């Protein structure tokens, strides 16, 4: 099963992404027909459990799926996997009714979900968010301004993180259908990279949803659980982009001569590419290892509670930080290899560098994640490796 899905994803990436870099790098509308063809190939939301009609592919195999997609285009990969953040939360902490209403159609319709957490003033201090979900009869009424949310405009539903006295922790994760009156897309951000993806500023004005659309559990902890899956796959994007940089460097070096010989025969070039290959191997190994830990917890009968107990996994934080930093080194070495051409829009390396940058920023910059590793895994002596 996994080999079949990975082969089909690789074929999709080769036919739809690899040779369309200029188009995918344009700031046109999000290329929804492209994403529809991914669904028609039977691949959309591939990670959803078999009970929901998905392929049931685990996160460990999803690492190779995302590596293939991001070899083709990181923005397309991000668009196609980031729903995993919301679906993980709904799958683990949503009622059977929410599963039937929101998760099942994602297979039949190839639809998206978006997570709406970040706010301008709160920044990474999510405990300071000001969006509210206030009880009114049998409903929750949501009000607030959110800063970034990928796929929000064309998603079927949003998982909104909001302050709520209904939740004992003070924060709830609430499922909001995209077509709820009062959900407004303020603008689409113009990003430096990942330009085939679409991230929006969103506001909520008196959005009314049934109170049973709140997920079980403390909202910020539930978000942390979902972030385990998406951070591992964001880290994996670096593997795919790095593989593409390596191949692009090899193609260039086969045609570029230095001292009357191809650059590929030069010892300095060989050392750089040897180093790159080692880094790619370690990044992939860390992503698969973190994903294996996630899959192992998910397979337990008490997965939802065990995830709440563990919160953010050290392996997932390590994958995201290591791949963000190492991917950035690879992008830097790669761009230098092309000389002046590497600083122009004429060569594809510029896009790869811009795409790589997001790995160390989205879902927690390195300063934030280092702080998290310190407080969760260094201060408590029992958690140290
Ligand atoms: C392409 C893209 C897609 C996105 N998609 C989504 C989405 O779908 N849903 C969503 O909710 N959000 C989304 N985001 C938001 C993204 O996750 C945040 O922008 C990111 O986590 C960084 O947080 P921040 O912008 O609040 O900046 P901050 O984390 O507040 O950082 C600002 C500055 O403060 C510093 N800082 C912050 N905390 C610490 C600390 N503890 N110690 C030291 N320094 C610190 C940082 O280093 C930085 O210099 C997206 C962003 C982008 C760019």
From TrEMBL:
Domain called Acyl-CoA dehydrogenase/oxidase C-terminal: residue spans: 218-375
Pfam families: Acyl-CoA_dh_1 (PF00441), Acyl-CoA_dh_M (PF02770), Acyl-CoA_dh_N (PF02771)
Ranges for domain Acyl-CoA dehydrogenase/oxidase N-terminal: 6-109
Residues in Acyl-CoA oxidase/dehydrogenase middle domain copies: 116-207
Keywords: FAD, Flavoprotein, Oxidoreductase
Reported cofactor(s): FAD
Family of this protein: Belongs to the acyl-CoA dehydrogenase family.
Annotated protein name in UniProt: Acyl-CoA/acyl-ACP dehydrogenase
Organism for this UniProt entry: Plantactinospora alkalitolerans
């Amino acid at each position: 099963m996994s080999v079949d899905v990975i082969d089909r994803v690789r074929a999709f990436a080769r036919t739809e992404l690899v040779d369309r870099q200029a188009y995918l790098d344009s700031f046109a509308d999000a290329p929804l027909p492209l994403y529809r063809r991914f669904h028609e190939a039977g691949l959309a939301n591939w990670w959803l459990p078999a009970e929901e009609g998905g392929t049931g592919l685990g996160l460990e195999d999803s690492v190779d799926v995302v590596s293939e997609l991001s070899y083709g285009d990181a923005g397309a990969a991000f668009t196609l996997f980031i729903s995993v953040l919301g679906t993980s939360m709904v799958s683990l902490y949503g009622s059977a009714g929410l599963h039937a209403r929101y998760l099942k159609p994602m297979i039949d319709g190839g639809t998206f979900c978006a997570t709406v957490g970040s706010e301008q003033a709160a920044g990474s201090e999510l405990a300071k968010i000001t969006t509210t979900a206030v009880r009114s009869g049998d409903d929750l009424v949501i009000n607030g301004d959110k800063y970034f949310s990928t796929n929000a405009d064309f998603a079927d539903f949003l998982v909104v993180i909001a302050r709520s006295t209904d939740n004992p922790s003070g924060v709830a994760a609430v499922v909001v259908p995209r077509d709820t009156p009062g959900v407004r897309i303020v603008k689409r951000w113009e990003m430096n990279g990942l330009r085939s993806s679409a991230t929006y500023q969103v506001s909520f004005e008196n959005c009314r949803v049934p109170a049973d659309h709140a997920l079980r559990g403390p909202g910020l902890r539930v978000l942390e659980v979902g972030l385990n899956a998406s951070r591992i796959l964001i880290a994996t994007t670096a593997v795919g982009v790095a593989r593409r940089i390596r191949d692009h460097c090899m193609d260039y070096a086969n045609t570029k001569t230095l001292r009357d010989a191809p650059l590929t025969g030069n010892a300095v070039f060989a050392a750089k590419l040897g180093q790159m290959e080692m880094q790619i191997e370690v990044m992939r190994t860390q992503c698969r290892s973190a994903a294996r830990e996630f899959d192992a917890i998910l397979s337990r009968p008490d997965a939802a509670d065990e995830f709440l107990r563990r919160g953010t996994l050290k392996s997932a934080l390590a994958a995201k930080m290591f791949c963000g930093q190492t991917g950035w080194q690879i992008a830097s070495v790669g761009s230098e290899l092309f000389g002046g051409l590497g600083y122009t829009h004429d060569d594809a390396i510029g896009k790869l560098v811009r795409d790589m940058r997001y790995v160390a920023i989205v879902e927690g910059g390195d300063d934030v994640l280092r702080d998290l590793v310190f407080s969760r895994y260094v201060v408590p002596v029992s958690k140290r490796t």
